[in-house]
Write a structure and sequence with these properties.
Length: 196
Amino acid sequence: MKIYTKTGDKGKTGLIGGRTDKDNIRVEAYGTIDELNSFIGKAVTELDPAVFADILEDLETIQHELFDCGGDLANVSNRRVYKMTDEPIEAMEKRIDVLVDESPELERFILPGGTPAAATLHIARTVTRRAERQVVTLTKAEEDVPTVVQRYLNRLSDYLFAAARVANARMKVSDVEYIRSAKVFKNVGSVKKEGE
């Protein structure tokens, strides 16, 4: 089977129900979600299954959900049936609460880093924020965009922050506080950060 089709050689790409330019904001948004999924896959390779079985299970679920998000964003057909619902968001919120409770108390901003897995999860977090910004832009430009994807990405960045902190904590690696940070977290252990 050949994996190249040559249909995109002139800068166009296929959507579900149409075609568009490869630099269209819709393509940018679901392309960034694909990039995010790859970083999560990298994080999976850096987490010891004996220590991080729960997070690995979370990340596999998230990878499937990201495919759903990308598919929903790529769907411009007249008969759209979206795969994403609020149920994964609610499940993720419960997991965030568990991870935050496990993490050391947090008062200040921290530097991304620590273990390789934590560093990769922080990269994934920032890519998630970029994808979220692109979905916001897409929503402003077009009416028919599944807004649940935006909510999911917003919550996912919080999950990845919490998971990165646990990736360090379980390996006995301390987060490094940003030295010029004031005490910015009102609720100790809160995962709310850059941009809410």
